[in-house]
Amino acid sequence: MADRFKSGDKVKKSGIYSVLHEGEHADAHDVTCIAGKMFPECGECGGAVRFLLVRHATHIGRNEHFKS
User: Fold this and answer.
1) To 5 degrees, how large is the angle CA 12–CA 3–CA 51?
2) What is the pTM of this model?
3) Domain boundaries, the chain
């Protein structure tokens, strides 16, 4: 699946990602990830966490209406 990522992958698109943890220590939840950063490991399940792009969003610093 093209919009599913794992810990250590580089974030290519800023936006809202659903986080899916292995095991039962955490329910799925949404986070904001910024392009150019790396998807982190979970403190509990390590690299056994996946990130699914829910909605792409341009970082405000890259939006033409807010550049200074």
Assistant:
1) 85
2) 0.85
3) 4-62
